[in-house]
Design a protein that fits this description.
- The complex is a heterodimer.
- Chain A is mostly helical.
- Chain A contains 37 helices and seven strands.
- In chain A, strand 1 and strand 2 form a beta hairpin.
- Chain A is elongated, with a radius of gyration of 37 Å.
- By secondary structure, chain B is of the alpha+beta class.
- Helices cover 45% and strands 27% of the residues of chain B.
- A five-stranded antiparallel β-sheet of chain B has the order 2-1-5-4-3, with helices on both faces.
- In chain B, a hairpin with a 2-residue loop joins strand 3 and strand 4.
- In chain B, helix 2 packs across helix 4.
- The chains are: A mainly alpha, B alpha+beta.
- Chain A: Pfam families: Adaptin_N, Alpha_adaptinC2.
- Chain A: Belongs to the adaptor complexes large subunit family.
- Chain A: Its main location: membrane.
Chain lengths: 839, 121
């Protein structure tokens, strides 16, 4: 029979346990347990007082029964009684019981706290340790409230024993983690830092854990720990193997303590003091050197411990990111590990290298290992190692190796786990866009992505490719041709149909000359997929058909026939039905000019941050920032608008003729102003007004602007393409063209928004919305000069009885800052009938 | 930070479990079965670190017993890996050639565990 407890007998318990183990069935076990419970109950209620040994025995039995899974509802009082005994074993069992079976009876808690207080105040280190362990194990808020003030005192008291200091440090750590507000910083913090100099390694270890946690919230209080930690670390690292007897693990001195010290140093920036810094660098170099020496022992534990320190050292070097030669050495060391026999080391090396890749000093060194990494991607058996290799390829990608890396990742995608496919798709899309010199390569890559992993290609990805194709004239023809060929494949993913439908609708005319892709062929190709698609795709295809009617009049009859078919006109889905009806009517009623205007090619999209990057960041969570944030090293521009470097969108120099608020003619595309709403309108010109862009410019004013301004069109006729009046969108917006009026006011007959007044200094815009009997009007004041307006106070004069009907008018704040473009919203709410007099 | 420490045998019975963050009782069994399933399906050539939900599992196999430690990403994996071994060595010393049966008796093991945990932090 195996040994039961720490050698103090309790034979009764041993007998009980062996009885339980010998029970043949569950029922027998329960019977035996119930018998024992009854016995214990009677003993506890009995007249004669139990002696310490019996109490201990019964309480221990109760604990065992509890751990078997049965509920215990008595015995707490006896356990608490045991706490006040003077014998260690009895106390121990008492504490064990109450740590495991936490009771919320307040009377008992009071007694328990009393007992703990007594033990803490006693001079006996074993008792103090028991009490501290109990506090740490329970760690409840009540305990924290009772003891949080006492423990720091015990920790730094000069006469506390080492074991007590250790327990106190860890107990304080536990309480701090559970309820940080209960542990006040005080003068004890300086003394805690000095514990790092203690002789006893255990105390140092415990102190390091405590300081690491505390300094996250209060870094300044513990700043002095850095130099102490450095000196401690260098002493350990340079110690011979005969020092630190107890703390040497397979010839490695204090590995866990070293790791902890290195981790503590990662909470602070590199030390400013030259001496400390020099010592630290020396120490790090020693660790790196030791890694190259032959091992002192053949055992795997020795090398594991050594490598643990090595990896933590490399983390620290990466964190500091200021010593180029250390970084390069670290990179080389990791490079050696990449081909190590042990899978663990390869995994850790790939992971560390990922963070190294984003540092500018070591980026080049990392790139030299690209072949090894690609090999790992192909040949590793372990999926988590392959995934790390893929992450590393993403991190080390730049212009020189982009094509190679993207093709490798595409190949990997074909056999990748389903769980990680979406992430890889996003990464490939980002890389392809960022490093594309030749945009036809980019189009190919994205179409390949859709072909290989169509289900995992999210909307952001194919929106992006459409944006890019629309913006770049040179790639439109190529895109049309490629998409046409891709659609001819027998099993074609729905996303491909969406992309293909849109591109052919816009640019199908570019390939119409070739007899193989003549208009009727294009139409029949798309229509053959029509019935296989979901509602959203079909809606997109209907829009493509009407664009075909415009581009290729010879197909008009066929397409009208399709639209007229009962399956469209009486389709169960409202969107499809509406589109079919409207397009059919449009094609029959409108003249060719009108049709051409309405269905004109989409204008180029303005610059903005790729939503794919935002999506990837969301997916990976906040921790992935380092690998993705390459703003430091590679300020590659988005070469979207014909290779023009985009100006940062916060400042744009206004020219007198430029429309600040973008409410009239086009600003030149090289100076991208505030974003427009057209970005969302990839699918359909006629869809509803887009909501304000999420995750773009944070200011609410931009949200207004996005609703105000149309996409930057060249011709005045494009006012019709404005997708975003605040009122409902619908066919009535596409009325007969309005000539560009000199009188700005006239346009408010049909529109709710627009420029009201403009001169050299000021532009005033209006946006109004109406609902039932209430109207709300916003006035925007744009500062066209490059100086700030001082004492700007707008006054609104209301005619006659309009004044009495104004429900609320908010004063405008003074125009802030020197940015010449801040509008000042001034909402005024009127009841509707009063507004009739406004004209 | 260590989230939990488990000793589970191949049949899925948990011999020792210690959670350092609050996890509800019914969720614990689920967690343990899932963890042991992912550990069992690994071969020798695969590395000992698994990514599971939002933390990492570091496991080591000793005969029929798996020792699994769940950590978040602030921990050094190699150090934890060796810690597991150190812990087993201490148990070995204490019980003189420890076996799974010894581990089933909680009190001694948990005492040893707490103490060795302190020493190595």
């Amino acid at each position: 029979m195996p040994a039961v407890s720490k050698g103090d007998g309790m034979r009764g318990l041993a007998v009980f346990i062996s009885d339980i183990r010998n029970c043949k069935s569950k029922e027998a076990e329960i019977k035996r347990i119930n018998k024992e419970l009854a016995n214990i109950r009677s003993k506890f209620k009995g007249d004669k007082a139990l002696d310490g040994y019996s109490k201990k025995k019964y309480v221990c039995k109760l604990l065992f029964i509890f751990l078997l899974g049965h509920d215990i509802d008595f015995g707490h009082m006896e356990a608490v009684n045991l706490l006040s005994s003077n014998k260690y074993t009895e106390k121990q069992i008492g504490y064990l019981f109450i740590s495991v079976l936490v009771n919320s009876n307040s009377e008992l808690i009071r007694l328990i706290n009393n007992a703990i207080k007594n033990d803490l105040a006693s001079r006996n280190p074993t008792f103090m340790c028991l009490a501290l362990h109990c506090i740490a194990n329970v760690g409840s808020r009540e305990m924290g409230e009772a003891f949080a003030a006492d423990i720091p005192r015990i920790l730094v008291a000069g006469d506390s024993m080492d074991s007590v200091k250790q327990s106190a440090a860890l107990c304080l750590l536990r309480l701090y983690k559970a309820s940080p507000d209960l542990v006040p910083m005080g003068e004890w913090t300086a003394r805690v830092v000095h514990l790092l100099n203690d002789q006893h390694m255990g105390v140092v270890t415990a102190a390091v854990s405590l300081i690491t946690c505390l300094c996250k919230k209060n870094p300044d209080d513990f700043k002095t720990c850095v130099s102490l930690a450095v000196s401690r670390l260098s002493r350990i690292v340079s110690s011979a193997s005969t020092d630190l007897q107890d703390y040497t693990y397979y010839f490695v001195p204090a590995p866990w303590l070293s790791v902890k010290l290195l981790r503590l140093l990662q909470c602070y920036p590199p030390p400013e003091d030259a001496a400390v810094k020099g010592r630290l660098v020396e120490c790090l170099e020693t660790v790196l050197n030791k890694a190259q020496e032959p091992p002192k022992s053949k055992k795997v534990q020795h090398s594991n411990a050594k490598n643990a320190i090595l990896f933590e050292t490399i983390s620290l070097i990466i964190h500091y990111d200021s010593e180029p030669n250390l970084l390069v050495r670290a990179c080389n060391q990791l490079g050696q590990f990449l081909q190590h026999r042990e899978t663990n080391l390869r995994y850790l090396a790939l992971e560390s290298m990922c963070t190294l890749a984003s540092s500018e000093f070591s980026h080049e060194a990392v790139k030299t290992h690209i072949d090894t990494v690609i090999n790992a991607l192909k040949t590793e058996r372990d999926v988590s190692v392959r995934q790390r290799a893929a992450d590393l390829l993403y991190a080390m990608c730049d212009r020189s190796n982009a094509k190679q890396i993207v093709s490798e990742m595409l190949r990997y995608l074909e056999t990748a786990d389903y769980a990680i496919r979406e992430e890889i798709v996003l990464k490939v899309a980002i890389l392809a866009e960022k490093y594309a010199v030749d945009y036809s390569w980019y189009v190919d890559t994205i179409l390949n992505l859709i072909r290989i992993a169509g289900d995992y290609v999210s909307e952001e990805v194919w929106y992006r490719v459409l944006q890019i194709v629309t913006n770049r004239d040179d790639v439109q023809g190529y895109a049309a041709k490629t998409v046409f060929e891709a659609l001819q494949a027998p099993a074609c993913h729905e996303n491909m149909v969406k992309v293909g439908g849109y591109i052919l609708g816009e640019f199908g005319n570019l390939i119409a000359g070739d007899p193989r892709s003549s208009p009727p062929v294009q139409f029949s190709l798309l229509h053959s997929k029509f019935h296989l698609c979901s509602v959203a795709t079909r809606a997109l295809l209907l829009s493509t058909y009407i664009k075909f009617i415009n581009l290729f009049p010879e197909t008009k009859a066929t397409i009208q026939g399709v639209l007229r078919a009962g399956s469209q006109l009486r389709n169960a889905d409202v969107e499809l039905q509406q589109r079919a009806v409207e397009y059919l009517t449009l094609s029959s009623v409108a003249s060719t000019d009108v049709l051409a205007t309405v269905l004109e090619e989409m204008p180029p999209f303005p610059e903005r941050e790729s939503s794919i990057l935002a999506k990837l960041k969301r997916k990976k969570g906040p921790g992935a920032g380092s690998a993705l944030d390459d703003s430091r090293r590679d300020p590659s521009s988005h070469d979207i608008n014909g290779g023009v470097e985009p100006t940062p969108s916060t400042v744009s120099t206004p020219s007198p003729s430029a429309d600040l608020l973008g409410l009239r003619a086009a600003p030149p595309p090289a100076a991208p102003p505030a974003p427009s709403g057209a970005g969302n309108l990839l699918v359909d010109v006629f869809s509803d007004s887009p909501a304000a862009q999420p995750g773009l410019g944070p200011s609410p004013e931009e949200a207004f602007l996005s609703e105000l301004e149309p996409p930057a069109p060249e011709s005045p006729m494009a006012l019709l393409a404005d997708p975003a009046p605040a009122a409902d969108a619908g066919p009535e917006d596409i009325g007969p063209p309005i000539p560009e009026a000199d009188e700005l006011l006239n346009k408010f007959v049909c529109r709710n928004n627009g420029v009201l007044f403009e001169n050299q200094l000021l532009q005033i815009g209006v946006k109004s919305e109406f609902r039932q009997n209430l109207g709300r009007m916003y006035l925007f004041y744009g500062n066209k000069t490059s100086v700030q307006f001082q004492n700007f106070s707008p006054t609104v004069v209301h005619p006659g009885d309009l004044q009495t009907h104004i429900l609320s008018a908010w004063p405008s704040p003074a125009p802030p800052g020197s940015t010449p473009m801040i509008p000042v919203p001034r909402p005024v709410t009127w009841p509707l009938r009063a507004l009739h007099s406004l004209r | 930070m260590i989230k939990f420490f488990l000793m589970v045998n191949k049949q899925g019975q948990t011999r020792l479990s210690k959670y350092y963050e609050h996890v509800e009782i019914n969720k614990r069994t689920l967690l343990e079965t899932e963890v042991i399933k992912s550990c069992l399906s690994r071969s020798n050539e695969q590395c000992s670190f698994i990514e599971y939900k939002d933390f990492k599992l570091i496991y080591r196999q000793y005969a029929a017993l798996f020792i699994v430690v769940g950590v978040n990403d602030t921990e050094n994996e190699m150090a934890i890996y060796e810690f597991i071994h150190n812990f087993v060595e201490v148990l070995d010393d204490y019980f003189s050639r420890v076996s799974e049966l010894d581990v089933s008796f909680f009190s001694a093991v948990s005492q040893v565990f707490h103490t060795s945990w302190q020493r190595t932090g």
